[in-house]
Amino acid sequence: MAPAFSTEGEARLKKLLGRYPDRRAALIPVLHLASREFGFLSREVMEYVAGRLGLPEAYVLTTATFYTMLPKRPLGRFHVQVCVNVACHLRGADGIVEHLERRLGIGPGEMTEDRTFSLEGVQCLAACGTAPAMQVNDDYYEDLTLAKVDEILDALRSSAGGAA
Amino acid sequence: MSLPPTVANAAPGRGHLLRLAPGESVVTLDRHLALGGFSAVRKALVMGPQAVADEVRRANLRGRGGAGFPAGVKWGFLPKDSPKPRYLVINADEGEPGTFKDRYFLERDPFPMLEGMIVSAYAIGAKTAYLYVRGEFVKPIAMLERAVEQLHRGGYLGKSVLGSSFGLDIHVHPGAGAYVCGEESALLESLEGKPGRPRNKPPFPAVVGLFGCPTIINNVETMACVRLIADVGAERFVAMGLPKDGGPKIYGLSGHVKRPGLYEAPMGTPLRKLVYDFGGGTIDDRPIKGIIPGGSSTPVLGSEHLDVAMDFDSVKAAGSMLGTGAVTVFTEGTCAVRLLTRLAAFYAHESCGQCTPCRDGTGWMERVVSAIEEGRGRPGDCDLLLSIANQIMGNTICALGDAAAMPVIAFVERYRAEFEEHVARGGCPFEGGHGHGHGHGHEGGNP
Ligand SMILES: Cc1cc2nc3c(=O)[nH]c(=O)nc-3n(C[C@H](O)[C@H](O)[C@H](O)COP(=O)(O)O)c2cc1C
Ligand code: SF4
Ligand code: FES
Description:
The structure holds two protein chains of two kinds. Chain A is built from seven helices and four strands, in the order ααααβααβββα. Chain A has helices spanning 7-17, 27-38, 43-53, 57-66, 86-90, 93-104, 146-159, and strands spanning 78-83, 117-122, 134-136, 139-141.
């Protein structure tokens, strides 16, 4: 089925376009919207966005591929991004990463078979004073310990409805 | 789930950038008004744009985004006679590893920054301002959009700010996860919907900026300082810091300190005071091995530098940079080589690839540092690292190249024996190899 924004998506698009004197400037916010609505930016979605903004497809492609936060592949229902930079490293990030890998059975850049979790090592999340830190979808989790990671994963799993 | 960082005002009654009361998680608009909110905008509207700009110049406010360029001087670079609209763009990309200060304003206390934006836009003659926020801050972005709507409804934004003839719109714009977009010209490219590749300068953004128009780019904390200046005046602002480097500063403490967090103190507060008085000293009182004074790109210092005053000129004189004032401390027992692998990997990942020295050099440095850490280092690798870094320095379009090279040079120079030992032994000399340095993730942190 061809992609199409939801009613709320359309309202958001209209609002975003009103912010800039130039349509291209709305591209990144609109790509964020599209990845929310369609899960990730497939070639089809990028074509759709290009059409909606009246921009050449090449503009959409070059911009989408430059930014790590614009997903070009499907992610797990919970996308776990754990910081591996200095401040977190000093506070035990390596142990957190190992623990996540063990608990989820996947490495960075991978997704669980049931598509519930995907894992990524990321750069500083601006949570260095509450390191180690990770982000799951829109939420930050800070001052992590292994026990806290277990609690978070268990809560996410049960909210996904089942013991994965 | 997300906990507030330790937030403390070390000089109550003097600076008031950090205002979160104990137990409070967000400063609402009502609370902002109760704390005298919008007095700065009201005063500015009476003073007139030129007088506000003069006041900011007299306050010797140095930009809080890292480079410390005087804000008033930057504003003065705007062309006087251009018929084009002017833009104000606020850099809320906060990506410099170690730095978490702007997040405080974005997530917990946005109105001083927004008020500073109104004052600044008025002073420079901008009718539109963009707040470019790093994309990871999804919830803060939604909150900031609501805050801007509240200001519109309250008559603080829109066609007529507080009934005056000055009109302003503020738009919140999300980034998408690229550190280089914190560099001001890359940020403009990104805001225009393009890949965030830094522009060649000159022309500088003040002359040719957003959509080809004159543009002022300032940091979030800089905006909170502008508000303070308009509110209390340049003299009092200067008295909150140093004569040539005015105002209070928000310092961040991270790494192996007992009480990491954000601390507001006069510009020029000694490092020792930050680490020992505010931070409570090091975990288990271990000796300090290194201090990264202002974000990951600033050259690492040692305990012999504890008496350095944390202002732009003093830290520079000590051989490093104040940067963002984000202090990361590490103690004896930390492997310096392994720590550097994290920084080297970061810069290699974030290079935009436009300049050969930066693109190839950052990748090369990462490979050499990792090889040393993993026991595959070769004699001469230290000199190789220094030579790669020195070939990057000063030879790139933007300062990311230098930012990648400086920590490599500083680490190799300061911990050379440790690098050589890794090479000689064919591995990490620290107990437990890669496992060391763990296990205090649950200490310190929140009050
Ligand atoms: C690679 C790189 C990343 C930067 N990241 C940021 C950032 O995240 N936030 C910021 O305010 N300034 C950042 N800067 C500095 C900006 O280019 C610019 O100097 C600053 O936003 C100006 O604001 P100020 O004058 O108020 O400090 C960065 C610079 C470079 C070279
Ligand atoms: S120095 Fe690096 S990040 Fe900056 S423009 Fe050149 S390649 Fe890009
Ligand atoms: S280093 Fe991990 S949040 Fe900054």
